[in-house]
From TrEMBL:
InterPro entries: Anti-sigma_ant (IPR003658), STAS_dom (IPR002645), STAS_dom_sf (IPR036513). PROSITE patterns: STAS (PS50801). This is Anti-sigma factor antagonist. It comes from Mycolicibacterium neoaurum VKM Ac-1815D. Belongs to the anti-sigma-factor antagonist family. Residues 17-115 form the STAS domain. GO terms for molecular function: anti-sigma factor antagonist activity. It comes from the Bacteria. It holds the Pfam family STAS.
Amino acid sequence: MVSGSHCDIGKRQVGTVTVVAVAGTVDSVTAPQLAAAIADAAAASPHAVVVDLGGVDFLSSAGMGVLMAAHADITPAARFAVVADGPATSRPLRLVGIADVVGLFATLDEALGAVSGGDV
């Protein structure tokens, strides 16, 4: 599995929110890429950082650790939210309790509305 690990990460601005969009596999091989992309996004001091896992087909504990570390590093200076929907992403995030700590949303529009409106 390790040799087949591939992760595409893009970054864009939506108003004062930086969206980090991720597709592919987030595991121990690719998690450092995600951590670097989130840190880069946060370095610009946006109002919020939203990590969109909509294109992720596998999220390992290493990826979940990156999300928890990012939440700890970014808040309370900025808002932080995660978009995850489906068995590969939202289910494990809920099972291990990360959804109880990090704002978790089914769609990017929901997440953008929450971080802009102060619900995260």
